[in-house]
């Protein structure tokens, strides 16, 4: 467990070109391309329809009911970052709203992922500031206890290190380790190209039973057709 009250200013972020390449792909594709790793629990949801983000993580460890460290984190945000916040224990309080979103946007942030609550959803939608959260909750928070910024955090069962790439869309949130960003982007591109070929075959009426050569294994297991 990392000590509380720590802010790491020096963060090695994933290569910008690799982040840009990953931004072209959906969460499901990235997750599959990475070997089905890095996915956050599905309770982390976009707070408004159409929210999407891809950027390098500035990580935050929050205390329950206390959003002080989000203000501390704002100073560490650079253009293209996303803030990724975990909590020392479960909390669904409204840590984040329109004012903090305005502050983060001014710093160049591309959004927030938080294992906690968020409020001011209509304002966030109007701003088109993407937030993925555990809950929507109007309950406010205090500024009284120290957490940390830019330390490894576990967010909805996914380990996030500062500088990792976080991709989020309607299907969920996936974390790509910074060192694997370029490799995963290339694998995602290959996967999309292969899927387009399959998509055309499905459009032409071919069945998955034949496309994936399923008939033999099914027969071996005893699948029987009765007329």
Care to give the gist of this entry?
By secondary structure, this protein is α/β, with parallel strands linked by helices. It has helices at residues 16-22, 27-33, 68-74, 98-106, 121-127, 181-203, 208-211, 215-220, and strands at 45-46, 53-62, 81-87, 94-96, 112-118, 131-136, 148-149, 153-155, 158-160, 165-169, 172-176. The protein has a single domain (14-183), classed as Glucose Oxidase, domain 1 (3-Layer(bba) Sandwich).
Q: Can you walk me through this structure?
A:
With 227 residues, the protein is of the alpha/beta class. It has one domain: Ribonuclease E inhibitor RraA/RraA-like (Glucose Oxidase, domain 1), CATH 3.50.30. The chain has 8 helices and 11 strands. Strands 1, 2, 3, 4, 5, 6, 7, 10 and 11 form a 9-stranded mixed sheet that branches. Strand 5, helix 5 and strand 6 form a beta-alpha-beta unit. Helix 1 runs parallel beside helix 6 and helix 2 packs across helix 6. The chain is elongated and about 70 Å long. It catalyses: 4-hydroxy-4-methyl-2-oxoglutarate = 2 pyruvate; oxaloacetate + H(+) = pyruvate + CO2. GO terms for molecular function: 4-hydroxy-4-methyl-2-oxoglutarate aldolase activity; metal ion binding; oxaloacetate decarboxylase activity.
The share of residues in extended strands comes to: 15-25%
CATH superfamily: Ribonuclease E inhibitor RraA/RraA-like
How would you classify the quaternary structure?
single chain
Fraction of residues in helix? 25-40%
In the CATH hierarchy, the third-tier topology is known as Glucose Oxidase, domain 1
Total count of domains = 1
Subunit structure: Homotrimer. Homohexamer.
Organism: Streptomyces odorifer
Binding site for Mg(2+): 120
GO molecular function, one term: metal ion binding
């Amino acid at each position: 467990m990392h000590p509380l009250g720590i802010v790491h200013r020096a963060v090695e972020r994933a290569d910008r070109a690799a982040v840009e390449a990953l931004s072209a792909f959906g969460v499901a594709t990235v997750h599959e391309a990475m070997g089905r790793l890095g996915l956050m629990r599905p309770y982390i949801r976009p707070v408004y329809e159409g929210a999407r983000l891809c950027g390098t993580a500035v990580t935050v460890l929050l205390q329950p009911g206390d959003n002080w460290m989000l203000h501390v984190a704002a100073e560490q945000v650079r253009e293209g970052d996303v803030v990724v916040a975990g909590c020392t224990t479960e909390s669904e309080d409204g840590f984040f709203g329109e004012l903090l979103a305005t502050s983060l946007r001014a710093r160049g942030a591309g959004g927030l992922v938080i294992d906690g609550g968020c409020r001011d959803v209509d304002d966030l939608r109007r701003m088109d500031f993407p937030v993925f959260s555990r809950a929507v909750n109007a309950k406010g928070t205090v500024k009284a206890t120290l957490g940390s910024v830019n330390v490894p955090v576990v967010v909805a069962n996914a380990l996030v290190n500062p500088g990792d790439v976080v991709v989020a869309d309607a299907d969920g949130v996936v974390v790509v380790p910074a060192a694997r960003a370029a490799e995963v982007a290339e694998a995602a591109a290959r996967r999309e190209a292969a899927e387009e070929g399959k998509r055309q075959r499905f459009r032409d009426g071919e069945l998955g039973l034949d496309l994936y050569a399923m008939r033999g294994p099914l027969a071996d297991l005893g699948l029987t057709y009765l007329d």
